[in-house]
Amino acid sequence: xxxxxLPSYSIETELGNSRSDSAPVPDAISTIPVAQPAPDDKPAxxxxxxxxxxxxxxxxxxxxxxxxxxxxxxxxAEAGYNTFLLRSEDVYIDLLTDSGTAAMSxxxxxxxxxxxxxxxxxxNFYNLEEKIQKYYGYSYIIPTHQGRGAENILSQILIxxxxxxxxxxxxxxxxxxxxxxGGTFVDVIxxxxxxxxxxxxxxxxxxxxxxxxxxxxxxxxxxxYISVAGTVNMAGGQPMSxxxxxxxxxxxxxxxxxxxxxxxxxxxxxxxxxQREADYHHQTIAAILREFCAYTDGCTMSGKKDALVNIGxxxxxxxxxxxxxxxxxxxxxxxxxxxxxxxxxxMEAMARGIEESVQDExxxxxxxxxxxxxxxxxxxxxxxxxxxxxxxxxxxxxxxxPHIPQDYFPAQRLAAELYLEAGIRTMERGIVSAGRNKxxxxxxxxxxxxxxLTIPRRVYTQAxxxxxxxxxxxxxxxxxxxxxxxxxxxxxxxxFFQARFALKSPxx
Length: 508
Fold this sequence. Notes:
The chain is of the alpha/beta class. It has helices at residues 69-78, 106-112, 123-135, 147-158, 172-180, 208-218, 242-255, 266-276, 285-294, 320-333, 344-357, 360-379, 397-400, 410-422, 431-434, 462-477; strands at residues 93-94, 140-144, 164-167, 184-187, 225-229, 258-262, 298-302, 313-317, 392-396, 424-425, 427-429, 450-454, 484-489, 500-504. Helix 8 (266-276) crosses helix 9.
């Protein structure tokens, strides 16, 4: 691989923000100098750091239900030890996902009242289209009910049986759509992404040698596109550098292959570029996002993440012929090409959410809250994926529960125990999520066996993060008491959503 010219990076965070020493620090959270002028009767103030706070205030609250241990034991048993099958009313702090769980702003709620629910040609669609074109830079926009709707349409128009899709680590729904269309996903992410302890600042990078080797092996004609995610969810929310994106683009141009971006958390990726690549310290998030997308030919998007809404997504393309084909398919699977499965009010909320998502103070606080929780766990020597990612903390279940073999689903067991301990719902990202090889029927055994603590945007307070950290520490202290699980029900597709488990003692 080409060696990147990256700034120095430390896993230690500064007031919730990973930054290089040369990065600008906003006035509101700047450090106080070691020695300041002081009156004669006062000693000089010691060196310290000021606290930072979220750039919003709370206007509406939702009461939470606090359950007893006995109630949680019944609930998790009824759910087959699968946190997806818990009732939300039985959950205290819900860190299952950041998908569709954000708190919308007063600006977005006001937009909801301006929904144009016309079946065709809603004005809200044109508002959404304008915002995507402005901030992401793509020419043609096809709204969908959420990201997987866009993945389905993209796979049908581009992938043929026998094709190969190289990418920087799989994502569950993306890979399934590729496989259902007859394609095979090929992981070309750098090796550091599979090491939870590696401090590489851009573990989402594509290994350029792996990519070119794949192209030379299968032939460019059998690669409909290179699948790029920013950030990489299954690697721990790890970002991709602008330098690497640019190099991948140059390879794609040389071979005549498209690049399709999973833009779900591309704003968070832009934040890490701003913090960790020297050339981008003084650029805005909006400018970085626009440049990153310019190295791609289209994107799929779940607006339920970065765009701060509860439902919705889109497929964006620059090729007019592909757009024509996709806009025809959206009518079959989603809805008319000017609403694509969304109400007008939802499109307006998403258009306004896009505006808010690229504001530097918003994304700094969003990632800062994640880093706050992660740093507490690091300080307490609890094994997590480092560097801390943009949307979640990932517990390293292999290191957390080394006595439970991967066949007995240690990450699934750990997620269940966190719920039992404090009513905190998290998600398994390991062998269960990886699924089975469609040819052999054997489990995939990923190197990463993780539990994801996903932080919804603008929802929880610092006190919730403190409680979560304390619950994780308590489970870690008592980890030797935990048994493994056995799977007693397995769905055909995406089994992590609906599989059921029962307690099982580890193999002696």
